[in-house]
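Run log // design_07
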């Protein structure tokens, strides 16, 4: 997966990083946390819908935009032709359901992309 190397990315002014026994955690005003999820989305009938690089790049931009909207951080992402892997850090204030919500759902406010403008 892309993105696993390099320094930790600050989550923003709402949280700070702390180190304990060599592990990095986030700290907010009332909690210390490290909530990571690894959702995997597959296309319908595992159809190879993400064949072109521009489609994969658009999918990655879309997932990062949704993560930013909900104050999440994408640690790593891998997009194959028929499925998508995402490793993301999620603040404890968000439910798992909100964290793995599909892009294009009405609650995200981001329209679903259609191929060839259909």
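design_07 sequence
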């Amino acid at each position: 997966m892309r993105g696993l190397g390099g320094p930790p990315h600050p989550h923003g002014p709402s949280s700070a990083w702390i180190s304990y026994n060599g592990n990095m955690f986030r700290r907010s005003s009332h909690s210390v946390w490290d909530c990571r999820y690894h959702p995997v989305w597959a296309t319908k009938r595992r159809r190879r819908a993400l064949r072109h690089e521009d489609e994969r790049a658009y999918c990655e931009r879309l997932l990062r935009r949704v993560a930013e909207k909900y104050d999440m951080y994408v640690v790593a992402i891998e997009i194959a032709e028929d499925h998508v892997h995402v490793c993301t850090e999620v603040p404890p204030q968000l439910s798992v359901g909100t964290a793995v919500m599909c892009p294009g759902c009405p609650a995200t406010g981001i329209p679903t992309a259609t191929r060839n403008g259909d």
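The CA atoms of residues 81 and 92 lie 32 Å apart.
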